[in-house]
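FORM 7B: Structural annotation worksheet

SECTION A. Query
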Amino acid sequence: MLKVGVLGAGHLGKIHLRLLNQSEKFELVGFFDPFEENAVKVAAEFGYTKFDSIESLIEAVDVVDIVTPTIQHFECAKMVIEAGKHIFIEKPIATTVEEAEEIVALANKYKVKGQVGHVERFNPAFTAVKDKINNPMFIETHRLAEFNPRGTDVPVVLDLMIHDIDAILSVVKSKVKTVNASSVAVISDSPDITNARLEFENGCVANITASRISMKNMRKSRFFQKDAYISVDYLDKICEVVRMQDAPEVPGDFDMILQNAEGVKKQIYFDNPNVNPNNAILDELETFADAINNNTTPIVTLEDGTEALRVAYQIIDCIGK
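SECTION B. Predicted structure
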């Protein structure tokens, strides 16, 4: 098993610690948290080994799971990579695109593997339909959350929208051509609700909305492509594929048939793929272990995390104009 240590024992860090402790692919060695009072409490409550420095933790493991505040990602990643250890790093990969690019360059230089924690890639509703998403030409996403002071130190684009940016980039095999966006800071100093429109070189358009001041939670995406509409509900973990095919000459009594203005008849049929329940965070961590052990490419690479961050900042820059 791979020896792993966790940097950061806050809300998400404790979740990672619990799951790594349960994993059959990792041996949890311990954690480091710079806030001594919290570190002592976590060690006492859960029995995890507390390290007194980042350096001592890095030395004791094969893999470091970085779950610190984003502002610390770069320095932590740099230390880990230069020590020759693999990194799992929570989203967003870094504070700036320049930092992210340097993380990628360092990982290549020191020949270590890295994965970014864009957890929605492992949501069972998304994984159930990803292979069915083929050249989408219009995408609409809504990620709405009730207000929570945790995370309001960054724009909602980096807090919430970046999840959908990454998912969209993973299925649209084209470069972003233009970005338009609008935003409002309602209760925070940074934007709380943002709408962005991405246009890709292949003609695909993505309309993305993220809010952290909504009355209810919603995490939905819709993908439209030739002869198909695919919906993903990340929150309720359900998905649906609505397809169209040429109508039979003699439709059945219960066939759903549409006829367009040109007289072409299409049959509509519904496909509800099986959604296998999972723990998405555990899956992203364990697939990273597989990538290390099998010397394969991680599912969400450092380059993927960098591109998601790059597009996020294009949106933020657009808002600032």
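SECTION C. Observations
The first helix runs from residue 11 to 22. The domain at 2-112 is CATH 3.40.50.720 (Rossmann fold).

SECTION D. Sign-off
Analyst initials: ____
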